[in-house]
Amino acid sequence: MKLYSTNNHDLNVDFATAVFNSMPLDKGLYMPVHIPELDQEFINHIDKFTLSQIAYKVASVLMKDTIPLEDLHSIIDDAINFEAPVVELGRDTYVLELFHGPSLAFKDFGARFMSRIMGYFLKDNEKMLDVLVATSGDTGGAVALGFLNVPNTRVTILYPKGKVSEIQELQLCTNGDNIHAIEVDGTFDDCQALVKQAFADEDLNGKLRLTSANSINISRLIPQTFYYFNAYAQLKRQGKSDVVFAVPSGNFGNIGAGLLAYKMGLPVKQFIAATNANDTVPRFLDTGVYETRPSVQTYANAMDVGAPSNWVRIMDFFKEDEAALKQIVKSKSYTDEQTLRAIKDIFETYDYVACPHTAIAWLALKEYQKDNSGSTGVFLSTAHACKFPDIFPEEIKARIEIPEQVAELSKKEKLATHLDTSFESFKAYLNRY
Ligand SMILES: *Cc1c(COP(=O)(O)O)cnc(C)c1O
């Protein structure tokens, strides 16, 4: 698998380079030079296969010249060791539950696969890989649990003090071993600024081998295609077709993976990118003007993104052909009030508790289905509701089932270093490694 940059189509790097760099020097995003299609025979019989068989097939088609198939097989078995069920809620209404991994969010797919790919490419005796991440909540947990005990790697996670939920904090701070959590007296933006400064700092880069683990990494995108194919397989088993995916979107990595699956031959009738008040993409699809804005805070805080980092990748999939893009991707934005209303409606209609991000996707699906009957609607549930307890009215909150992973966490000791927002403090911390 060779990759170019969205800013330079002549660039041609190998997969390992793209994985360790995350982003090309020209600040574009890495894209596969060639997107192979799955054979029609496989798609026609996809309902006969399990998630791990589908994952292996998709990955081998993309990466067969990159990693020996036997090794790819064990990476996938180790990384994708939980299910992604499609649950029927009502007529033509299905929820794709992506929260059955260790951090209870879909980011487990990307983070677990990426960590194992990085671990695989690291040779024995090579310098330790230092992964730096700033998180507003969900990314940190997935990366921490993804890299936990991966040899030759060390993860440093910065999170804003008091601004992540209790469960998210436990996921960041109870790991020990190669995972270090830093509680920063500031905002998510402060955390991100510290990480950026570290990447730009010559001394630190001379001493440590730094890498990022953010959602633009190509090795996070690939495993997210698996569950789209697998969802289609589950629906096909029930005789369903004309599938519409509604995807709660922030940085647009998740829907980007859906579009990669589509390019590889997954039959999809429509994608709907559902956003909160951070509506850069829906505005663009309406007006043709791409204008980023500072992010605003919402109930669906994992999608509080004003400048979606994966959007250029999506434009590149369609080679800037806006008409083709607009046909397959619709996008809608919803307010906090609508989100809360949707959480209640979902609970009352289906007796189901959806997290705020998930509820936004359901809203977009319902709006689409009003004008387009006969489609099979799937909305993606990106996180377990227990990660966002403060949003729910008491009677719904009481119905949230706490998964066993969480019960285990609460017994563990919280380990975090407390820092202010100055780069000197952070640098001194890293220099002690
Ligand atoms: C990260 C996240 C999203 C947004 O996903 P993108 O790939 O950034 O669009 C949505 N919901 C939850 C729960 C998340 O953690």
UniProtKB/TrEMBL annotation:
EC top class, as a word: lyase
Molecular function terms, GO-annotated: pyridoxal phosphate binding; threonine synthase activity
Residues in the signal sequence: none
Q: Which residues carry this modification: N6-(pyridoxal phosphate)lysine?
A: K107
UniProt KW keywords: Amino-acid biosynthesis, Lyase, Pyridoxal phosphate, Threonine biosynthesis
Among InterPro entries, the record links this protein to:
Ser/Thr_deHydtase_PyrdxlP-BS, Thr_synth_N, Thr_synth_N_sf, Thr_synthase-like, Threonine_Synthase, TrpB-like_PALP, TrpB-like_PALP_sf
As cofactor, the record names: pyridoxal 5'-phosphate
PROSITE patterns for the chain? DEHYDRATASE_SER_THR
Instruction: Give the enzyme's EC designation.
Output: 4.2.3.1
Q: What is this protein called?
A: Threonine synthase
Q: Which organism is it from?
A: Pedobacter frigoris
